[in-house]
Amino acid sequence: QVHLVESGGGVVQPGGSLRLSCAASGFTFSRYGMHWVRQAPGKGLEWVAFIRYDASNQYYTDSVEGRFSISRDSSENTLYLQMNSLRPDDTAVYYCAKDADSVGWTFDFWGQGTLVTVSS
Amino acid sequence: DIQMTQSPSSLSASVGDTVTITCRASQSITIYLNWYQQKSGKAPKLLIYAASSLQSGVPSRFSGSGSGTDFTLTITSLQPEDFATYYCQQSYSIPFTFGPGTKVDIK
Question: pLDDT (tens digit, 9 = 90+) per residue, B48-85?
Fold first, then answer.
């Protein structure tokens, strides 16, 4: 069965950096695109970034463009999110999600999330 | 960006009730609409994709319909485990956007 486990969250000061990881198992990681989705405390869901199965393209929501970088290591079945120049409004639970590779872009499996808190 | 709205924002229902949640997109997204369920403190779970296709393992009391800009999620014979927040999401274009959510709680 598909299993996604995020790690790397924590407390960081404004302007700081953090790298999140997502360990994938139970499916052929190299064949699927992957997403990061976040949820601020008590708020709704916000898509953050997507990387194609072969890492040929990456896409970002405007608010993180130029500050965040999504990458993957298919030899390690791991997805990453490098977050730089962090701001208080980046505080959220960050989920990695597998793309379903079906009609449109659909998040068919999710990890349990990792909390990032940006505060001085 | 495509804006997604949902109504109602919350509702109270009883076990056995039929519940309908509406989602509207700011422009046509054809059938590129997904529904997710999120329970408190947990990750979202995919229920419906492509407007009306039931995700594997999801009970058949969940159904989706619609196309273009207007969509509905229907839960027939509400069960205790269905009390949660439900989000729609457009998968038509980047950035993929979610509705604000509809919280279903116990009457």
Answer: 999 999 999 999 999 999 999 999 999 999 999 999 99
**From start to end of chain B, where are the E strands?**
4-7, 10-13, 19-25, 33-38, 45-49, 53-54, 62-67, 70-75, 85-90, 102-106
The answer to whether B101 touches A46, Cβ cutoff 8 Å, is no
Q: Closest residue of B to A41, CA-based? A: B41
**What is the tens place of the pLDDT at every residue in A49-98?**
999 999 999 999 999 999 999 999 999 999 999 999 999 999 999 999 99
- With CA atoms as reference, report the closest residue to A98 among A64, A72, A76, A69: A72
Inter-chain residue contact A95 with B96, CB threshold 8 Å: no
Q: Work out how many CB contacts closer than 8 A connect A with B.
A: 68
- Classify burial at B65, counting beta carbons within 10 Å of its beta carbon; exposed 0-12, middle 13-18, buried 19 or more: middle
